[in-house]
Each structure stands twice: as structure tokens, then as C-alpha cells.
Design goal:
Shape: globular
CATH architecture of the largest domain: 3-Layer(aba) Sandwich
Distance between the termini: 27 Å
Largest sheet: 7 strands, mixed
Bound molecules: zinc ion
Order of helices and strands: HEEEEHEEEEEEHHEHHHEE
Strand order of the largest sheet: 1-2-3-5-6-9-10
Number of domains: 2
Length: about 260
């Protein structure tokens, strides 16, 4: 994997967004493997394909690419808010690749994979409608709030200017793919409880450690009347998918 960007492809392009798109797409075509199956390359969809930018010819996984100059921040802007929510609810959003690059060094600095099954409406932030003076006046876009995604759904392929070991990336992707909850309301719960478990600063923990997040979870799910029962149910799902082990008597261990 060569982390340098090929600026030769920017000839004829003038806007920053177009330049970002062509250099990042060229880099993916030349360098990126399929993070789901390990196939050596990803293929660009024909331009104006409705949703995704790339696909894997072997496992058929689809990827959207977002690129940004500068530094990795808590959120990244994406397309139309309504479309994004519909895609998540319909379970037809692709995996997302987020590339952060340096235009000074002409290099990829970070590349993060967010598997499609980690998308929930809670991480999609509605942006203000474009003003009346804009070409697309009234259009409502969205931000993806990256920091609210559990760490198991933020898989680094390139981190701080260095490539991660491919086998580690593939392992993380396999682990991430296990937690594939199709019901979107239930998916929101599992991600929220997983964030709480991740927040506990030790590998071995107790049910009481998770109950300590009851108020936080209640405020995120005000309609729920029995948050403790919901926590226990989510811990069972995490156990069934290999994320935690039950040690008996309310004791647990983190596995992933
Ligand atoms: Zn593949």
C-alpha cells in the first residue's frame, strides 16, 4: 500500500471537492483491498451509481468513500439527511470508507472503515437547510457523528500516516460483521449498550458496572420502562455474538 496521493489526476479540475474526489478515488483504485474478504482490489462503480462508489468483485461488498483534507474530527458531512435515514432503515446502506489526507504532504493520513451494520439513526445528525441564496436552496444534508460509533465499528486501515496490518483489519471486520442487527430500533440499543461496556475501563466487569449507565440509557430511550431488563437482554446479544463472556453471578469479560 503506497500512501502517497497521485495529484496528476487533478488536471482539469478546479473545485476543492472535485479534486478531493478524484485523488481519493484514484488512491482507492490503486491501493485498497477489500476489508471484508481481503481481495486485492476494489472496483469503481460507473459514475452516478445511486449509492456506493466501489464494490468488491469477489464478495460483492459495496463501499461509499468520503474524503476530507486535514485532520480526523468527530463528524464528517455526508449526503441528504432523509436519504441516509431511509438507507439505514432499509438496511441498504453500503460500508463507509473515510479518508483523511494531507494536501501538503500529498499523503493519506487516516483511512477508517465503518461497516454498514454500525449505522443507526442516532449517529446521523441533521444539518441546517441550505440558505435561499444557495443553488440547492432548502436542501438538508447530514453529518455522520463518528465519535458515537462503538470502537468495534471504527476500523482503522491507515492510522496516523501508517498502514495497519491487513490481517488485523480483516479480523476486526469479521468481528464487526458479527453484530448485525437488522431491526434498526434494536440496533440502536445494542450500540448504546456496547458504548457503555466499552466505556468501562477494565476487561472484567459486573452487571452493576453496566447498570451504572442506567440514567444515561434512559435519557437516550425515554420510552423504555425497564432499562435494566433491556441492559441484560443486550448483554446476552453481545455474548451470543462473541463480544463478551458470561462468568456467572453477574460477572462478565470483554472479548472484543
Ligand atoms: Zn470482498
Amino acid at each position: 500500500m503506497d500512501l502517497s496521493l497521485d495529484y496528476n489526476v487533478t488536471t482539469g479540475y478546479h473545485s476543492n471537492s472535485q479534486i478531493a474526489r478524484v485523488i481519493s478515488e484514484k488512491w482507492i483504485e490503486d491501493n485498497m483491498y477489500c476489508p471484508r474478504c481481503g481481495n486485492r482490489q476494489l472496483v469503481h462503480f460507473p459514475n452516478n451509481a445511486p449509492v456506493a462508489d466501489f464494490y468488491c468483485p469477489v464478495c460483492k461488498a459495496e463501499y461509499e468513500l468520503k474524503s476530507k483534507r486535514g485532520r480526523l474530527s468527530n463528524k464528517i458531512s455526508d449526503g441528504a439527511y432523509r436519504t441516509m435515514l431511509d438507507r439505514i432503515s432499509g438496511n441498504n446502506n453500503p460500508d463507509l470508507l473515510i479518508m483523511i489526507y494531507s494536501s501538503d504532504k500529498k499523503r493519506v493520513n487516516d483511512l477508517i472503515l465503518i461497516p454498514k451494520n454500525f449505522f443507526t439513526p442516532q449517529i446521523i445528525e441533521k444539518r441546517k437547510p441550505l440558505p435561499a441564496t444557495a443553488r440547492r436552496a432548502g436542501w438538508v444534508g447530514c453529518n455522520i457523528v463518528i465519535k458515537d460509533i462503538p470502537k468495534q465499528g471504527r476500523i482503522a486501515v491507515v492510522s496516523d500516516g501508517a498502514e495497519e496490518i491487513k490481517s488485523n483489519v480483516l479480523n476486526s471486520t469479521v468481528n464487526g460483521a458479527r453484530l448485525d442487527i437488522k431491526n434498526i430500533a434494536e440496533r440502536g440499543w445494542i450500540m448504546d449498550v456496547l458504548n457503555c461496556v466499552n466505556d468501562i475501563g477494565k476487561y472484567d466487569f459486573t452487571l452493576q458496572d453496566v447498570y451504572a449507565y442506567e440514567n444515561r440509557l434512559q435519557s437516550m430511550h425515554p420510552e423504555n420502562k425497564n432499562v435494566k431488563a433491556k441492559i441484560r437482554q443486550q448483554l446476552q446479544i453481545l455474548r451470543d455474538n462473541g463480544y463478551v463472556a458470561f462468568k456467572g453471578k453477574g460477572n462478565y469479560s470483554k472479548l472484543i
